Amino acid sequence: MDDSDVLPHIEKLVDEEQKLTQLTQQGVLTQDQRTHLHEIEIYLDQCWDLLRQRRARRQAGLDPADARLHDEDNMEFFPQ
Question: Which of the pair, 67 or 77, is modelled with greater confidence?
Fold first, then answer.
């Protein structure tokens, strides 16, 4: 996977997150949708982290392909 693969994937997830967030604001989000929104938020953090890793590795002269998606337990979460 390269950066050009990661960015469209992130954009798709952001769109889905926004739709679910709108449902939250309207007060019509189901429990399954809440769970899905939480999963999207975690996966988005992982994807952004992967993209940052790839860019940092590239800037350091290392192979960006060696960047890895961290599991949820090893992520530093950022406010949404």
Answer: 67
CA dist., res. 43 & res. 35, Å (int): 12
Cα separation of 8 and 10, whole Å? Answer: 5
Identify the residue with better confidence: 18 or 71.
Answer: 18
In a domain, 15, yes or no: yes
User: Could you tell me the two tokens for 34?
Assistant: 């809440």
What number of other Cβ atoms are within 10 A of residue 19's Cβ? Answer: 12
Q: Look at residue 71 in the predicted model and tell me its pLDDT.
A: 78
Q: Within a domain: residue 28?
A: yes
Number of domains in the chain: 1
Q: Which domain holds residue 41?
A: 3-64
Residue 9 lies in a domain: yes
Measured in Å, how far apart are the chain's first and last C-alpha atoms? Answer: 25
